[in-house]
Automatic annotation (TrEMBL):
Signal peptide: none annotated. PROSITE patterns: PROKAR_LIPOPROTEIN. This is DUF4097 domain-containing protein. Residues 104-181, 189-310 form the DUF4097 domain. It comes from Lunatimonas lonarensis. It comes from the Bacteria. Pfam families: DUF4097 (PF13349). The lineage of its organism: Bacteria, Pseudomonadati, Bacteroidota, Cytophagia, Cytophagales.
Protein backbone atom coordinates (compact mmCIF):
# COMPACT_ATOMS: atom_id res chain seq x y z
CA UNK A 1 0.00 0.00 0.00
CA UNK A 2 2.86 2.35 0.86
CA UNK A 3 4.35 1.75 -2.61
CA UNK A 4 1.07 2.71 -4.26
CA UNK A 5 0.83 6.13 -2.58
CA UNK A 6 3.85 7.67 -4.43
CA UNK A 7 2.56 6.19 -7.70
CA UNK A 8 -0.88 7.74 -7.19
CA UNK A 9 0.78 11.07 -6.35
CA UNK A 10 2.89 10.96 -9.50
CA UNK A 11 -0.08 10.08 -11.70
CA UNK A 12 -2.18 12.89 -10.17
CA UNK A 13 0.61 15.42 -10.72
CA UNK A 14 1.04 14.39 -14.36
CA UNK A 15 -2.71 14.59 -15.03
CA UNK A 16 -2.94 17.96 -13.32
CA UNK A 17 -0.08 19.44 -15.35
CA UNK A 18 -1.55 18.01 -18.53
CA UNK A 19 -5.02 19.38 -17.81
CA UNK A 20 -3.96 22.84 -16.68
CA UNK A 21 -4.17 25.51 -19.35
CA UNK A 22 -0.80 27.30 -19.48
CA UNK A 23 -1.29 28.48 -23.06
CA UNK A 24 -0.75 32.21 -23.71
CA UNK A 25 -3.76 34.47 -24.15
CA UNK A 26 -4.80 35.09 -27.73
CA UNK A 27 -6.90 37.88 -29.16
CA UNK A 28 -10.52 36.82 -29.75
CA UNK A 29 -12.46 40.10 -29.99
CA UNK A 30 -11.28 43.66 -30.63
CA UNK A 31 -14.18 45.71 -31.95
CA UNK A 32 -15.70 49.18 -31.78
CA UNK A 33 -19.28 49.92 -32.79
CA UNK A 34 -21.71 52.84 -32.89
CA UNK A 35 -25.43 52.18 -32.58
CA UNK A 36 -28.12 54.76 -33.37
CA UNK A 37 -31.60 54.87 -31.86
CA UNK A 38 -30.87 52.60 -28.86
CA UNK A 39 -33.30 53.03 -25.95
CA UNK A 40 -32.51 49.84 -24.02
CA UNK A 41 -29.33 47.83 -23.38
CA UNK A 42 -29.20 44.28 -22.05
CA UNK A 43 -25.91 42.60 -21.08
CA UNK A 44 -25.87 38.91 -20.20
CA UNK A 45 -23.31 36.46 -18.80
CA UNK A 46 -19.57 36.42 -18.59
CA UNK A 47 -16.75 37.33 -16.24
CA UNK A 48 -15.45 40.43 -17.98
CA UNK A 49 -15.32 44.08 -16.99
CA UNK A 50 -18.51 45.84 -18.09
CA UNK A 51 -19.13 49.59 -17.86
CA UNK A 52 -21.70 52.13 -19.02
CA UNK A 53 -21.24 55.92 -18.79
CA UNK A 54 -24.17 58.19 -19.57
CA UNK A 55 -23.62 61.42 -21.47
CA UNK A 56 -26.26 64.17 -21.32
CA UNK A 57 -25.68 65.18 -24.94
CA UNK A 58 -25.13 61.75 -26.50
CA UNK A 59 -27.57 60.52 -29.17
CA UNK A 60 -25.90 57.20 -30.02
CA UNK A 61 -24.30 54.32 -28.11
CA UNK A 62 -20.58 53.66 -28.57
CA UNK A 63 -19.24 50.22 -27.71
CA UNK A 64 -15.68 49.00 -27.26
CA UNK A 65 -15.26 45.23 -26.87
CA UNK A 66 -12.00 43.45 -26.17
CA UNK A 67 -11.40 39.80 -25.30
CA UNK A 68 -8.35 37.57 -24.92
CA UNK A 69 -8.52 33.85 -24.18
CA UNK A 70 -6.17 30.93 -23.78
CA UNK A 71 -8.55 28.95 -26.00
CA UNK A 72 -8.06 29.90 -29.67
CA UNK A 73 -11.61 28.83 -30.58
CA UNK A 74 -13.26 30.55 -27.62
CA UNK A 75 -16.60 32.26 -28.07
CA UNK A 76 -16.23 36.00 -28.58
CA UNK A 77 -18.26 39.01 -27.47
CA UNK A 78 -21.35 39.46 -29.62
CA UNK A 79 -23.84 42.28 -30.23
CA UNK A 80 -27.43 41.81 -31.34
CA UNK A 81 -29.84 44.56 -32.35
CA UNK A 82 -33.61 44.09 -31.89
CA UNK A 83 -35.48 47.26 -32.76
CA UNK A 84 -34.45 49.93 -30.25
CA UNK A 85 -32.86 47.32 -27.97
CA UNK A 86 -29.17 46.40 -27.97
CA UNK A 87 -28.21 43.01 -26.55
CA UNK A 88 -24.64 42.19 -25.58
CA UNK A 89 -23.57 38.60 -24.89
CA UNK A 90 -20.37 37.80 -23.04
CA UNK A 91 -18.46 34.50 -23.09
CA UNK A 92 -18.76 31.91 -20.31
CA UNK A 93 -17.80 32.30 -16.69
CA UNK A 94 -14.38 32.29 -15.13
CA UNK A 95 -14.13 29.94 -12.17
CA UNK A 96 -11.58 28.33 -9.85
CA UNK A 97 -11.28 25.72 -12.59
CA UNK A 98 -10.17 28.27 -15.20
CA UNK A 99 -6.78 26.54 -15.51
CA UNK A 100 -8.71 23.60 -16.91
CA UNK A 101 -11.47 25.38 -18.79
CA UNK A 102 -9.43 28.24 -20.23
CA UNK A 103 -8.53 31.74 -19.06
CA UNK A 104 -10.11 34.95 -20.35
CA UNK A 105 -9.47 38.68 -20.00
CA UNK A 106 -11.30 41.60 -21.50
CA UNK A 107 -13.97 44.27 -21.25
CA UNK A 108 -17.07 45.84 -22.75
CA UNK A 109 -17.11 49.64 -22.38
CA UNK A 110 -20.31 51.43 -23.36
CA UNK A 111 -21.08 55.14 -23.54
CA UNK A 112 -24.36 56.67 -24.61
CA UNK A 113 -27.40 58.73 -23.64
CA UNK A 114 -27.95 59.45 -19.96
CA UNK A 115 -31.62 58.50 -20.25
CA UNK A 116 -31.77 54.81 -21.13
CA UNK A 117 -33.15 51.48 -19.89
CA UNK A 118 -30.40 49.23 -18.56
CA UNK A 119 -30.48 45.57 -17.56
CA UNK A 120 -26.98 44.33 -16.79
CA UNK A 121 -26.27 40.84 -15.54
CA UNK A 122 -22.73 39.56 -15.13
CA UNK A 123 -21.63 36.35 -13.47
CA UNK A 124 -18.38 37.80 -12.10
CA UNK A 125 -15.80 40.43 -12.90
CA UNK A 126 -16.53 44.14 -12.48
CA UNK A 127 -19.65 46.11 -13.44
CA UNK A 128 -19.56 49.92 -13.31
CA UNK A 129 -22.42 52.27 -14.25
CA UNK A 130 -22.20 56.05 -13.99
CA UNK A 131 -24.56 58.97 -14.69
CA UNK A 132 -27.70 57.20 -15.87
CA UNK A 133 -31.42 58.01 -15.61
CA UNK A 134 -34.50 56.00 -16.53
CA UNK A 135 -37.78 54.55 -15.31
CA UNK A 136 -36.38 51.24 -14.08
CA UNK A 137 -32.74 50.22 -13.84
CA UNK A 138 -31.78 46.61 -13.07
CA UNK A 139 -28.36 45.17 -12.28
CA UNK A 140 -27.35 41.67 -11.14
CA UNK A 141 -23.97 40.22 -10.22
CA UNK A 142 -23.37 36.64 -9.16
CA UNK A 143 -19.90 37.40 -7.83
CA UNK A 144 -17.19 39.95 -8.40
CA UNK A 145 -17.83 43.66 -7.92
CA UNK A 146 -20.54 46.11 -8.94
CA UNK A 147 -20.26 49.91 -8.62
CA UNK A 148 -23.21 52.18 -9.44
CA UNK A 149 -23.07 55.94 -9.05
CA UNK A 150 -25.05 59.06 -9.96
CA UNK A 151 -28.31 57.35 -10.92
CA UNK A 152 -31.70 59.03 -11.37
CA UNK A 153 -34.62 56.63 -11.77
CA UNK A 154 -38.08 55.68 -10.57
CA UNK A 155 -36.88 52.27 -9.35
CA UNK A 156 -33.42 50.76 -9.01
CA UNK A 157 -33.32 46.96 -8.61
CA UNK A 158 -29.96 45.49 -7.64
CA UNK A 159 -28.93 42.04 -6.48
CA UNK A 160 -25.71 40.26 -5.60
CA UNK A 161 -25.35 36.60 -4.75
CA UNK A 162 -21.75 37.05 -3.60
CA UNK A 163 -18.91 39.51 -4.00
CA UNK A 164 -19.46 43.23 -3.45
CA UNK A 165 -22.22 45.58 -4.57
CA UNK A 166 -22.08 49.35 -4.04
CA UNK A 167 -24.53 52.08 -5.12
CA UNK A 168 -23.81 55.76 -4.40
CA UNK A 169 -25.82 58.92 -5.08
CA UNK A 170 -29.14 57.50 -6.19
CA UNK A 171 -32.28 59.56 -6.80
CA UNK A 172 -35.19 57.10 -6.74
CA UNK A 173 -36.51 54.09 -4.86
CA UNK A 174 -34.11 51.17 -4.36
CA UNK A 175 -34.66 47.43 -3.97
CA UNK A 176 -31.47 45.65 -2.89
CA UNK A 177 -31.04 41.91 -2.38
CA UNK A 178 -27.84 40.32 -1.13
CA UNK A 179 -27.55 36.56 -0.79
CA UNK A 180 -24.01 36.71 0.56
CA UNK A 181 -21.03 38.98 0.24
CA UNK A 182 -21.45 42.71 0.84
CA UNK A 183 -24.07 45.27 -0.24
CA UNK A 184 -23.44 49.00 0.30
CA UNK A 185 -25.95 51.80 -0.37
CA UNK A 186 -25.16 55.48 0.26
CA UNK A 187 -26.71 58.89 -0.42
CA UNK A 188 -30.20 57.92 -1.57
CA UNK A 189 -33.11 60.30 -2.20
CA UNK A 190 -36.00 57.83 -2.11
CA UNK A 191 -37.33 54.79 -0.27
CA UNK A 192 -35.16 51.72 0.28
CA UNK A 193 -36.07 48.06 0.71
CA UNK A 194 -33.30 45.57 1.42
CA UNK A 195 -33.15 41.83 1.95
CA UNK A 196 -30.09 39.93 3.06
CA UNK A 197 -29.84 36.21 3.60
CA UNK A 198 -26.24 36.34 4.83
CA UNK A 199 -23.16 38.48 4.49
CA UNK A 200 -23.19 42.21 5.17
CA UNK A 201 -25.53 45.10 4.31
CA UNK A 202 -24.61 48.77 4.87
CA UNK A 203 -27.08 51.60 4.25
CA UNK A 204 -26.21 55.24 4.94
CA UNK A 205 -27.72 58.68 4.33
CA UNK A 206 -31.21 57.99 3.01
CA UNK A 207 -33.81 60.73 2.52
CA UNK A 208 -36.78 58.35 2.57
CA UNK A 209 -38.28 55.29 4.23
CA UNK A 210 -35.96 52.33 4.91
CA UNK A 211 -37.46 48.84 5.31
CA UNK A 212 -35.82 45.46 5.17
CA UNK A 213 -35.16 42.00 6.50
CA UNK A 214 -32.03 40.06 7.42
CA UNK A 215 -32.12 36.28 7.64
CA UNK A 216 -28.56 36.12 8.97
CA UNK A 217 -25.37 38.09 8.75
CA UNK A 218 -25.01 41.74 9.68
CA UNK A 219 -26.84 44.93 8.64
CA UNK A 220 -25.95 48.53 9.50
CA UNK A 221 -28.32 51.44 8.85
CA UNK A 222 -27.14 54.99 9.56
CA UNK A 223 -28.54 58.49 9.15
CA UNK A 224 -31.88 57.71 7.52
CA UNK A 225 -35.00 59.85 7.46
CA UNK A 226 -37.49 57.21 8.62
CA UNK A 227 -37.53 53.53 9.50
CA UNK A 228 -40.27 51.30 8.13
CA UNK A 229 -40.68 47.58 8.74
CA UNK A 230 -37.37 46.11 9.95
CA UNK A 231 -36.93 42.46 10.89
CA UNK A 232 -34.14 40.06 11.68
CA UNK A 233 -34.38 36.31 12.10
CA UNK A 234 -30.76 35.84 13.18
CA UNK A 235 -27.51 37.76 13.09
CA UNK A 236 -27.18 41.44 13.94
CA UNK A 237 -28.97 44.61 12.78
CA UNK A 238 -27.85 48.02 14.01
CA UNK A 239 -29.49 51.39 13.34
CA UNK A 240 -27.78 54.66 14.22
CA UNK A 241 -29.54 58.03 13.88
CA UNK A 242 -32.70 56.59 12.30
CA UNK A 243 -36.00 58.42 12.31
CA UNK A 244 -39.00 56.54 13.72
CA UNK A 245 -42.59 57.25 12.69
CA UNK A 246 -46.07 55.87 12.06
CA UNK A 247 -44.73 53.26 9.60
CA UNK A 248 -42.03 51.93 11.94
CA UNK A 249 -42.36 48.27 12.96
CA UNK A 250 -39.51 46.34 14.57
CA UNK A 251 -39.39 42.56 14.94
CA UNK A 252 -36.74 40.06 16.10
CA UNK A 253 -37.13 36.31 15.68
CA UNK A 254 -33.63 35.70 17.04
CA UNK A 255 -30.34 37.53 17.03
CA UNK A 256 -29.84 41.16 18.06
CA UNK A 257 -31.35 44.45 16.87
CA UNK A 258 -30.11 47.78 18.23
CA UNK A 259 -31.87 50.99 17.18
CA UNK A 260 -30.76 54.50 18.12
CA UNK A 261 -33.57 56.87 17.06
CA UNK A 262 -32.95 60.42 15.92
CA UNK A 263 -35.89 61.69 18.03
CA UNK A 264 -36.88 61.58 21.67
CA UNK A 265 -38.76 58.36 22.46
CA UNK A 266 -41.36 60.38 24.36
CA UNK A 267 -42.84 61.52 21.02
CA UNK A 268 -44.47 58.08 20.48
CA UNK A 269 -46.43 55.34 22.19
CA UNK A 270 -45.14 51.74 22.17
CA UNK A 271 -46.79 48.33 21.94
CA UNK A 272 -44.40 45.35 21.84
CA UNK A 273 -44.97 41.66 22.41
CA UNK A 274 -42.18 39.51 23.88
CA UNK A 275 -41.81 35.72 23.75
CA UNK A 276 -38.61 34.29 25.18
CA UNK A 277 -36.44 37.26 24.23
CA UNK A 278 -35.44 40.50 25.93
CA UNK A 279 -36.71 44.01 25.14
CA UNK A 280 -35.36 47.46 26.01
CA UNK A 281 -37.19 50.70 25.17
CA UNK A 282 -35.46 53.69 26.68
CA UNK A 283 -35.26 53.07 30.42
CA UNK A 284 -37.83 50.25 30.33
CA UNK A 285 -36.65 46.68 29.84
CA UNK A 286 -37.69 43.11 30.52
CA UNK A 287 -38.85 39.78 29.13
CA UNK A 288 -42.58 40.54 29.10
CA UNK A 289 -44.92 42.42 26.77
CA UNK A 290 -44.42 46.14 27.03
CA UNK A 291 -46.86 48.98 26.42
CA UNK A 292 -45.94 52.61 26.95
CA UNK A 293 -48.53 55.38 26.61
CA UNK A 294 -47.04 58.83 26.13
CA UNK A 295 -50.36 60.30 24.89
CA UNK A 296 -48.76 60.59 21.46
CA UNK A 297 -50.48 60.52 18.06
CA UNK A 298 -48.66 57.42 16.76
CA UNK A 299 -47.73 54.07 18.29
CA UNK A 300 -44.57 52.15 17.43
CA UNK A 301 -45.25 48.42 17.35
CA UNK A 302 -43.06 45.35 17.27
CA UNK A 303 -42.22 41.92 18.63
CA UNK A 304 -39.37 39.89 20.09
CA UNK A 305 -39.78 36.13 19.81
CA UNK A 306 -36.25 35.39 21.03
CA UNK A 307 -32.98 37.22 21.00
CA UNK A 308 -32.81 40.88 21.97
CA UNK A 309 -34.19 44.23 20.77
CA UNK A 310 -32.93 47.55 22.06
CA UNK A 311 -34.58 50.88 21.16
CA UNK A 312 -32.98 54.06 22.46
CA UNK A 313 -33.65 57.74 21.76
CA UNK A 314 -31.39 60.69 21.30
Amino acid sequence: MRRLIPIFGFVFTVLTLYACDFRPLQLITDEEHTFEGVEEIIVRGGALEVSYVGDEGAKSVSASAYLESSQPNAEGISFRRKGNRLEVFLPGNDSPLSFWTGRTKGHVHLTGPKTIRLDLEASSGVVEVTNVSGEELKFDVSSGKMLLQDLDCTTLKISCSSGKLEAVRVAGNVEMRVSSGMGILREVAGDVYFKGSSGSVQIKEVAGLVSGAMTSGKATVERVQELGDLSISSGYLRVEDGGIGKDTHLSVSSGLMKVRASQSLSEFNYDFSVGSGYLTIGKESGSKDLQINNQAEHTIKGSVQSGKLELLGR
